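Reader question, answered in our methods column.
A reader sent in the components of a multi-part assembly and asked whether the whole thing could be modeled at once rather than chain by chain. We filled in our standard form and ran it. Here is what they sent:
COMPLEX SIZE: three components
ENTRIES:
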Amino acid sequence: MYSPAIIAEAVVNGLMTGAVYALIALGLTLVYGVLHIINFAHGALLTAAMFAVWVVYEALGLDPYLAILPLTPLFFGMGYAVQRFVIGPASHGNDSNILLVTLGLSIAIENALLAGFRSDTRTLNTDYGFQIVEFGPLLLSKPRLIGFGAAISVTVLLWLLLSRTDTGKAIRAVAKEKFGASLVGIDVAHVYAVTFGLGCACLAVAACLLMPTFYVNPRIGQAFVLVAFTIVVLGGMGSIPGALLGGLFIGVVESLCGLFLGDSLGQIGIFLIFILVLLVRPTGMFGAKA
Amino acid sequence: MLEVQNATKRFGGLVAVNQASLKAAAGAITGLIGPNGAGKTTLFTLISGFEKPSEGRVLFEGQDISRDEPHVRARRGIARTFQIVQPFAGLSVLENIAVGAHLRHAKRSDAMARAERVGQRVGLGPELEKSASSLTVAGRKRLELARALATEPKLLLLDEVLAGLNPSEIRDIIPVIRAIRDEGVTILMIEHVMQAVMNLCEQVYVLAQGRIIAEGPPADVCDDPKVIEAYLGAGAAERLKREKIHA
Amino acid sequence: MTFRDIVPIIVLITLLAFVPVFITANTVLNFLVFTLIIALAAQGWNILGGFGGQFSFGHAAFFGTGAYAAALLQVRLGINPWIAFAIGAVAGAAVGWAIGYLSFRSGLRGSYFALVTLAFAEVLRILANAAAFTGGAAGVLIKLDVRPENFQFESRGAFFWIALALVGAVLVLTRWIERSRFGAQLVAVRENEAAAKALGVDTLRVKLGAITLSGAVTAAAGCLYAQYFLYVDASIAYGTWISVEAILAPIVGGLGTVFGPLVGAVALHGLSEITKLAAGSVPGIDLMVFGGLLVAAVAFAPEGILGLLRRSAQAKGAARHA
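And here is the structure of the entire assembly that came back:
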C-alpha cells in the first residue's frame, strides 16, 4: 500500500500536469465550439510547437519561458493560415471531409518532423529543470509549478478575451449561429481562422511550459492528443471551464493510474474513461451533432 | 386502420402534443391541419416511430405499436414522407426508390423493377437515371412520395408534400394522391394548402397548441368558430369563403 | 449478382496471378505482398467506411486482433496456422461486432465514431504491450518452419498468390454487397440515416453487419501479416500506421467502390517507393507525402483515382461525339 504522502504527491503532480493538459485541450475545445470540427491535427501541431521550443533554445539559446513571446504569435499566424488556406477550402464545408483533411495534415506534419529531426528523443538542459520547491511535506518540481500557474493564467486570459472583447463577441456569435453572424457583417471565414489561430497559440504556450520538464520526439503529440480529446469530451465540447476541470481531473487520474498500475498500463484509465463517456453520454453533450 | 389514443409528447417542459386522439379510417384520406408550431409533425413522428409518446398509445390494425422502432412500423405497413425532403443525395432517383422497394423485395432485380414502376407512376419517369440531388423542389417531393410508396404501405403519412410547389405542380400531383387512395392505401396527410385539403380529404382533424380542437368533414371544420379563432384568425373566414367560391 | 458482374474481377486476378512467373526478385515480391496485405486491410475499411459512411480511425483494432490471434494460437496453443488464420478472421469479426454494438447502439456517428474507434485500438495496443500472454513489449515470434501445411513457403510467390486470392475473394464479396439488398441499405444509411429508417431499414443491424464483415476482412490482413513476417508486436499490430493505411487507400483509390482500395494501395505504395528512391532513406518522407495526398484527394479528387479516370474517359467520349 502507499502512504498518504505519496498519494497526496501523486494528486498534486497530477493537478500540475492536468493544468497543462487543460491548456492543450483548451485549443481543441475552442476550435470545436466555434467551427464544430474535431481537429485531428492538434497533436501534430503540439509536436511542432515543442520542436520549435527546442530549436530556439538550441540555436538561439532562448529560454523556453521567454520563447512564449515569439512563439505564441507565430503559431497564431500559422494556425490562421492553415484554417484559412488549407482546411477551409479543402473540405468544401463537409464534416467528414474536415475529419480527413485534419487527419492528413496530422500525418504530414508529424512525418515532416520525423524527416527533419529523426526519431530521436530530445530534451532541454535548463539549469532549473530539476529544481524542487518544498511545500509543507510535499516536494514539488519548480518548473511544473510554474507551468501550473501559467496554464491557469492563460485559461483565464482566454476566457476574458472571449467574454470581454469585440473579437470574443464575434467568435461567440459565429459559434452560436454562423449564418446570423454573417448577416450582421461578421466575416465567418476570418473568425474561423482566428479561432483556429487561438487554438494553435494555446499549443505554443503549452509547449513552452512543457519543455523544461518534458521531452520531444516526432510521435509525442499522439500521446497528448487522445488525452486532450478525452478532456474535451469529458468537460463538454466547446466549454472552457469544462476543459480546465476536465484537464485537472484527467491529470490526477493519469497520475494515480500510473501509481497503482505502473507506467505501461497508466494511460489505460484515461482511454477507458474516454470510451465510457462517449458511450454513456452520447446525447446531451454530443450525439445530435454528428 | 390507425388510431392514436390520448397521445402526449413532452420535450423537457414543453408539451408539443397534448392528449391528442385521432383515427384514420381504412381506404380514406384523412387530413391533419393546424397553425405552424401546433405539433402536427411531432404527432407524425409519434405515429412513424421516430419519437415515442410520453403518454398514450398508437394503434395500427388494432395492435399497440407505441414502442416499435420506425423500421418495424415500416415493415408493418406505415410509410412516411419528410416535410424537409431527405433524399439519398449521392444516389440516382431510381436507386433512391429502390431502397424503399427493397423492404418487400430481397432481390435487386425485383426491387429495381418495382422502383421503376413506382417512379413512372408518380411522374418521375424521365428523371429516373438522374442524381437525386439534381431534382427540383417538385421533383424531390415526388421522390419522397415514390420512396414511401415503394415500400407498399397500408398507411401513408404525407407531411406537407405540396408545400413549396406552384399551383400547376399542385394540380398535377393531386390526382396522383387520389389514385394511390383508390388502390386501397390509407392516407393521413399534414397539409397547409387548403385547396388540396378540401379536394382530397374525407375527414379533417385540427391541431392547435398540441390539442385536437376540431374534427369532421373539411367544409364543416372550416366553418367551426373554434377553428377560425384558433387557426385562421379573424378575417380569414371570409377569405376562405372566397376561395371556396373560386374552387 | 450475376456472373457478368464478376468477370472483370476474374480477369484482373488472373492477370495478376502471372506476376510471380515474370518477377522473381525478392524485394519486388516483398513489396507486392506487403501492398496486397494493405489492400486487404483497406478493403475491410472500405466496407464500413466507403459503403456505410462510418469512418473508423481505429481499424488497427481488427488488424492487430487478427495478427495476434494468428501468432498466439500457434505459438502458445500449438494450433495449426491455417486454422489459426480462420480463427483470427472470426476474432476480428467478433471485435468488430462488439465495438459496433457499443458505439452504434449509443448513437455515435461522424467524428465521435472516429474517436471511439481510435480509443478502442489504443486500449488494445496498451493491453497487448503490457500483458505477459502477448509477449509484452518484446512481441511474439513465430518459429520458422517452412512447410506448406504450416502456412510457410519456400517461395514468396506462394504468399503472393494467397494474398491475391484473398484480395480477389473480397473483391467478389464487395461486388456482391454492391448488388445486394444489404448493400443498398448500407449505402442508404450512409446517405441519410433517418430516411433509411423510414423506409424500413434496420439501421443498427445493417451497420453491425458492415462492421462485422469489415473487422473480419481487416483481421484476415493482420493474420497474413503475422504469417508473412513471422513477428508481431503491439506497435505493429495495433499501431496507428495501419489504421491510417486502411483509410488512405480507399480514399485515394475511390471511396465506396469495389476496386478503390486495391487501386489506392498500389498507387500509394508505388508512390512511396518512388519517393524513397528520390529522397533516399529519410524516415517519414513517404508518410509525409501520404498526408499531403490525403488533403489533396479530399480537396481536388473526392472520388479518388477511379473517379478521375471515369471523368477523363467521359470527357474523351464527349470530345469524340462533338
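What stands out: The CA atoms of residues 147 and 153 of chain C lie 6 Å apart. Chain C has one domain: 3-321.
Send us your own complexes using the same form.
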